[in-house]
Amino acid sequence: MSAGEPVDVVLVDDHHMFRTGVKASLDDGVRVVGEADTVDTAIELVRRVRPPVVLLDVHLPGGDGGGGAEVLRACADLQGEVRFLALSVSDASEDVVAVIRAGARGYVTKAIDGAALSDAVRRVAGGDAVFSPRLAGFVLDAFGAAAGDVATGDDELDRLSAREREVMRLIARGYSYREVAAELFISVKTVETHVSAVLRKLQLSSRHELTRWAAARRLL
Amino acid sequence: MTTTAGPASPFGAASRLPLRRPEQGRWVGGVAAGLAAHVGLPVRLLRVAFVVLAPLGGVGVFLYGFWWVTVPAGDPLEAAVDARPSALARLSRRQADAAPARRWPVTDVAVGALLVALAAVLVAGRAGRLDLDWVLPAFVVLAGVGLAWSQLDAAQRGRLRRRAGGRTPVSVLRLLGGVILAAVGVLLLVGQGSGRGVATDDLLQTVVASLAVLAGVALVLTPWWLRLVRELGDERAARARESERADIAAHLHDSVLQTLALIRARADDPAEVARMARAQERELREWLYDDRPAPGTSLVAALRGIVAEVEDSRSGPDGDPVAIETVVVGDRAPDADTEALLQATREALVNAVVHGRPPVSLYLEVGPSEVEVYVRDHGDGFDVDAIEPDRFGVRESIVGRVHRRGGEASVVCRPGRGTEVHLRVPVGPGEESAGAAGRAHDDEKEPPA
């Protein structure tokens, strides 16, 4: 995919300096086709341009004060065509869970380097989920996986399967998808499938901790 | 394990929210929504419970009304955040949510219910089953009390006050109206009871009448007095928090400005600049995005301290500072076992930073019966068995420490995939975690509802 057409990206962040930095650090496989700096301009731009990927800051001024999650909700009907990758300087759990549950396909912190970010953009454009070690840690925490609370069936939304837990732990330990695949003797594609399944659970689960937390933050 | 998460997960830590009536997601007065957030039950369940309890002698209605007037309105989560000592709370504003408030047309419903009740009373009166002379005064008293108590609805009061900029004539009007209505109602009632009119020569009747008026007035004035008491406490607490907050802001500005000045002065030394920037970033991040636990209650806080120390004092093989990507799952109170684990972790981190190759990752997982640590770097690693006995570092300070606590330590090196040190120490269950301790503390401070 990286050899083909560059991926078009809309960049949403309220700091001009940061947007400039991101644009400079992205490699040739990613092309920035638009920029926005508030909730309202972001919604307008995304609806007009309909890029395959939007790099979305979590904390944004404007709109009703809902930040990135508000943009996600306003563009909910575009999901599938436009994919969102959340980008934030914050690594607080509520910020992460808010945008993921609103529909973002991944979450990376702004400390990420250009190559890794470009790679994450391509991954999201290809329909995969992007989990940073920290997001994997949150998932393990929220799903009680550290306490051995593991699903027995595939269709359970409220718990991780043993394999998903294993994948999440390796990502939390700093393994790349490729390294996870090698460690577990599975293909990279399978790792991506597991990660996407976890993302789906994170978005749809009515697990006690997630819903109570989300309800308290009025995300449901 | 059931659905209860690790005792001090970031989700569990904020679990016991104070009792407030949230403005968003309320149907009538927000009592069910607030109660649901407080006890952690689904809102639907509580709403059903209120409805089911309503016909049972009006228990549901009474409870609902009681909580409506006594529980202050507000966002439970914001209240929980405010309840934390601000020196320990994160500074960054939490995200507001744009979801529109869903409300029932309360006024329409109330007017409808009132009309239905009146119709029922009239029908009953026509049928001769009910003495209208008693019912109408009772209605007047009820209306007066309702009017007066409704001023306790703090949300409305706050909104009105903000708009009016100071004293609200509306609340005064409400109080006056309530008093007058209640007094008229009580007089009518008493007059009814005494036969013909209020003025009779029966002394007992007069005493009863005046007592009734006094009781009515007290009933009407109580919410006003309650409100005064509550406001006084709130204002005092708010002022204390404000000054604490100012201290923190001053501290932050000082440290950030000083670091920036230092960075400008040392601009020709990239390694030193990177180190200072990293240290400042860490400090700022901690102040902005984390709730800081009280000292000595959190294993995670102790671990972060060790990471900070290693990042600040050690450099990589080529002299560059190395950032340690830290991920933690769960938390607990530190004890002797985890202390040994932390010391071993520190040695492993130093080893990874000094002899390994970045990026360095650290993962800590607190399980119910053991604590695990993984330290990973991208260097070529080393073979534990091949270490000469005189190299005390790894063998004694990492492996030995953990073994003495009944744990395990292993080092895995894979060509091209770096080195990973895995430490595992068994811990006893039932220790109170930092999160649980914090919660118990919060509960203490809650006013008895």
Description:
The complex is a heterodimer of chains A (220) and B (449). By secondary structure, chain A is α/β, with parallel strands linked by helices. Chain A is 48% helix and 15% strand. Chain A contains 10 helices and 8 strands. In chain A, strand 3, helix 3 (67-74) and strand 4 (83-88) form a beta-alpha-beta unit. The longest helix of chain A is centred in the last third of the chain and has 17 residues, at 188-204. Chain B folds into 3 domains: 1-84, no CATH class; 131-290; 294-438, Heat Shock Protein 90 (2-Layer Sandwich), CATH 3.30.565.10. Chain B has a 5-stranded mixed β-sheet. The longest helix of chain B has 63 residues, at 203-265. Residues 1-14, 96-102 and 431-449 of chain B have low confidence and may be disordered. Classes of the chains: A alpha/beta (220), B alpha+beta (449). At the A-B interface, helix 3, helix 4, helix 6 and helix 10 of A face helix 1, helix 11, strand 1 and strand 2 of B.
Structure keywords:
heterodimer, A: 220 residues, alpha/beta, Rossmann fold, Arc Repressor Mutant, subunit A, 2 domains, 6-stranded parallel sheet, two-stranded parallel ribbon, 8 strands, globular, B: 449 residues, alpha+beta, Heat Shock Protein 90, 3 domains, 5-stranded mixed sheet, 8% strand, disordered C terminus
DSSP strand count of chain B: 5
Number of domains of chain B: 3
SSE topology string of chain B: HHHHHHHHHHHHEHEEHEEH
Please count the helical segments of chain B.
Answer: 15
Q: Taking Cα atoms only, what radius of gyration of chain B do you get, to the nearest Å?
A: 33 Å
Strand order across the biggest sheet of chain B? 1-2-3-5-4
Largest sheet of chain B: 5 strands, mixed
Second rung of CATH, namely the architecture of the largest domain in chain A: 3-Layer(aba) Sandwich
Counted beta strands of chain A: 8
According to CATH, what is the topology of the largest domain in chain A?
A: Rossmann fold
Q: Could you tell me which chain pair has the largest interface and how many residues each side has? A: A-B, 51 and 50 residues
